[in-house]
Design goal:
By secondary structure, the protein is an alpha/beta fold. It has two domains: 174 residues, Aspartate Aminotransferase, domain 1, CATH 3.90.1150.10; 252 residues, 3-Layer(aba) Sandwich (Aspartate Aminotransferase, domain 2), CATH 3.40.640. The chain contains 16 helices and 14 strands. Strand 3, helix 5 and strand 4 form a beta-alpha-beta unit. Helix 2 packs antiparallel against helix 11, helix 3 runs parallel beside helix 11 and helix 4 runs parallel beside helix 5. The longest helix has 20 residues. The radius of gyration is 21 Å and the shape is globular. Pyridoxal-5'-phosphate binds next to helix 4 and helix 5.
């Protein structure tokens, strides 16, 4: 991309979906009724929906056409074999078990690989990933570099692992207590930050020394590959496709939420190289998801996923996808809004601690800010802070994450740059009135993944 010239989306619009415009008064009622939790709003109450990039992508005409090629046989659907081919070709893993989405794969893999009392190191936790590790009896250990916890650090690869910390952990607990190292590309909770190829290679060498496998949470692998191409020495002339394959080749198994990078509205998979683990997973998927050739998906979903995977690794696609996120991020930076730096690949993360310094973390600054942005413009964001971090498994106390963020997540191929302008102006207008934003009190807290369903009230 030439930075001196304007650029545009590498597609044109063939079908439109009207948006719903509401008044501020209506929005104040809606968000109150939703318990100040943007997850509890109805989508018709939302103007620009930046809640998540999960399952919200626009499919291409080729993907829609592929939906008509669904082979809805219970067993041995042709679409399963197409998906298997796509995974062999672009990712290189040997065996495929489809699942209804990413957490289905996490569930099965955690149950197979983790024993009671095990430790699972990873480059920062992800909500569902850690929960499945814990439900299987494991304890997650964060081994991401310390820069990842600092929204001001401009480290280009904040997804990197602190290898010294990992080796200390292996020596302290013993390699037999570590079933695998869990690596995400890119790191969602750190703000969509990539891991470098150099770090991944060093991690591979270290884990090989102790016989520990690497499990790859490859939800945003193409976005990570793009950041390597842009910022890591030696990768400028490699296609994103090649870099994706190189990342996958350094790992032993993968869980995928195809609702992100792979441009489908539903779907996921578990992919492994070990035949024994595959056999167990193929057996277990029958209990929780469905037969091993559909895993909770319709044939048409698998076909759309196979095509989505091929589109997701195209340089033109990924440059525009990440480019749109950068476009919004730069607008906010220029307006002086505190955001996580560098700008991540799937969203812009507002630093709510800095935005609302008059609120304590117990007053849920990120939750409050997301509600406030909604009231201002109907733009829906989400909290990634103390609510998402949940409670300590043992003490039951609130976890206090260093990062208290509001995430503006950009769906793929859905909105235009003009929508991004509207979002930037809304955040800026809330920023100008930031000292008026009040905190919240939690009045309902569900037991698991509380951020999805918790309810709040505005403080006086
Ligand atoms: C979304 C996501 C998951 C879980 O996938 P689902 O399809 O939502 O079940 C796992 N890891 C990361 C990094 C994710 O972003």
């Amino acid at each position: 991309m030439q930075t001196s010239r304007s650029w545009a989306e590498p597609y044109k619009i063939k079908m439109v979906e009207p948006l719903f415009i509401t008044t501020r008064e209506e929005r104040e009622t809606y968000i109150k009724e939703a318990g100040y939790n943007t997850f509890l709003l109805r989508s018709r109450q939302v103007y620009i929906d930046l809640l998540t990039d999960s399952g919200t992508s626009a499919m291409s005409d080729r993907q829609w056409a592929a939906m008509m090629m669904g082979d809805e046989a219970y067993a041995g659907s042709e679409n399963f074999y197409h998906l298997e081919e796509a995974i062999h070709k672009y990712y290189g893993y040997k065996y495929l078990v489809p699942t209804h989405q990413g957490r289905g794969a996490e569930h099965i893999l955690s149950k197979i690989m983790i024993k009671d009392g095990d430790f699972v190191p990873g480059n920062m936790y992800f909500t569902t990933t850690r929960l499945h590790q814990e439900l299987a009896g494991g304890t997650f250990v964060d081994i991401i570099i310390k820069e990842a916890h600092d929204p001001e650090s401009t480290h280009l690869f904040k997804g990197d692992c602190d290898l010294q910390r990992l080796e200390d952990l292996i020596k302290e607990k013993g390699a037999d207590k570590i079933p695998y190292v869990s690596i995400a590309t890119t790191v969602n909770m750190a703000g969509g930050q990539p891991i470098s190829m150099a770090n991944l290679k060093a991690l591979r060498a270290l884990t090989a020394k102790y016989g520990i496998p690497i499990v790859h949470d490859m939800t945003r692998v193409a976005e990570n590959a793009y950041m390597i191409q842009q910022n890591e020495k030696g990768y400028q002339d490699k296609a994103v496709k090649q870099i994706v394959r190189e990342i996958c080749d350094l790992t032993d198994a993968a869980t995928m939420s195809a609702k992100k990078d792979a441009l489908v509205n539903i779907g996921g998979f578990l992919a492994v190289n070990d035949e024994e683990i595959f056999n167990q997973a193929r057996n277990m998927v029958v209990i929780y998801e469905g037969l091993h050739t559909y895993g909770g998906l319709a044939g048409r979903d698998m076909e759309a996923m196979a095509i989505g995977i091929s589109e997701s690794v195209s340089d033109d696609h990924i440059r525009a996808r990440v480019g749109q996120v950068l476009y919004l991020g730069k607008k906010l930076l220029n307006a002086g809004v505190p955001i996580v730096k560098p700008i991540g690949t799937h969203g812009v993360f507002i630093d709510a601690k800095k935005f609302l310094p008059h609120l304590t973390q117990e007053q849920f600054p990120a939750q409050s800010l997301a509600a406030e942005i909604y009231e201002d413009s109907g733009v829906r964001a989400m909290e990634r802070g103390i609510v998402s971090a949940g409670r300590d498994k043992i003490t039951g106390e609130n976890n206090h994450p260093e990062l208290e963020l509001v995430r503006l997540t950009i769906p793929r191929r859905v909105y235009t740059q003009a929508h991004m302008d509207v979002v930037a102006e809304s955040v800026q207008s809330v920023y100008n009135e930031r000292d008026k934003v009040k905190g919240l009190k939690m009045i309902y807290e569900p037991e698991y993944l509380r951020f999805f369903q918790a309810r709040f009230e505005k403080l006086g």
